[in-house]
From TrEMBL:
A biological-process GO annotation: positive regulation of fat cell differentiation
InterPro entries according to UniProt: WD40/YVTN_repeat-like_dom_sf, WD40_PAC1, WD40_repeat_CS, WD40_repeat_dom_sf, WD40_rpt, WDFY1/WDFY2, Znf_FYVE, Znf_FYVE-rel
This protein's GO CC annotations: early endosome
FYVE-type domain: residues covered: 208-279
Species per Swiss-Prot/TrEMBL record: Echeneis naucrates (Live sharksucker)
UniProt keyword Zinc, yes or no: yes
Keywords, sorted A to Z: Endosome, Metal-binding, Repeat, WD repeat, Zinc, Zinc-finger
Annotated GO MF terms: zinc ion binding
A Pfam family annotated for this UniProt entry: WD40
Origin organism lineage: Eukaryota, Metazoa, Chordata, Craniata, Vertebrata
Protein name, as recorded: WD repeat and FYVE domain containing 2
PROSITE patterns xrefs: WD_REPEATS_1, WD_REPEATS_2, WD_REPEATS_REGION, ZF_FYVE
Amino acid sequence: MSFNPETRRLSVGMDTGSICEFVLSEDYNKMTPARTYQAHQGRVTVVLFVLEMEWLLSTGQDKNFTWHCSESGQQLGTYRTAAWVSGLQFDVETRHAFVGDQSGQVTILKLEQDICSLVTTFKGHTGNVTALCWDPVQRVLFSGSSDHSIIMWDIGGRKGTAIELQGHNDKVQGLCYASHTRQLISCSSDGGIVIWNMDVTRQETPEWLDSDSCQKCEQPFFWNFKQMWDSKKIGLRQHHCRKCGQAVCGKCSSKRSTIPLMGFEFEVRVCDSCHESITDEDRAPTATFHDSKHGIVYMHYEPTTGNLLTSGADKVIKLWDMTPVVS
């Protein structure tokens, strides 16, 4: 669903592929049917109304991204996606649509009145994209995934920076950004709610390096038959240090540590030398963790009131006062 409080227009995507539009009365006690859009051939997955453009954007399980004129009801255009879409955001200033799909890919599309052109695609998740959040001020896109991770993509910085955030133990179900405090709110299907402080200088996680032997003790990994034969040593399993990215053996990476500025709020594998270099100050958390006590399937944050709404698989809707933590 997509609701616009200024026009009191409610757009509801249906399993049949159509989108039903209603106008709510001033006291919110009555819904008047206004229009039905025949938008998709399969279940509607995301609906987004853009008041500034008078556009209704939608995606469906038919792998189509479409946009309609909400004044005339006419379809303006359509674009075929690689997989069915589970996340959609739009930037009014540049007319860019951000489309996240089940393959884990995010696609940026440029929309004109009736023309859609591909800008770029990028992929950083190993699971499907489950949530997108766009900050038009900092020009940063956040994506959440079933792989439990969140990635912050610096779209406006033009440096290709992608910051990974690891703070959930289950599928990320929702993302909201409080721009006035520069805090990201995320929730997962196990009921976890995480408040991330984004007003800190974060670091990109390094790429994992390739090597046939441990880059610390030089013992061969188990596929390096030649070095195993020459050195008469048994091959070891390869691991990677999350801080420096070097390929290391288990003995040289026996330590664990949090690295909050790199997004690792939970303890991860690091090599022994990196473990010695991480100070207590480096381990200071940059996020707070809260338990909603129900499996969250949807969330919405209202910055004007400081209220967070969550709905769960238990058929319960909860309203949270976030002012003590988002301030």
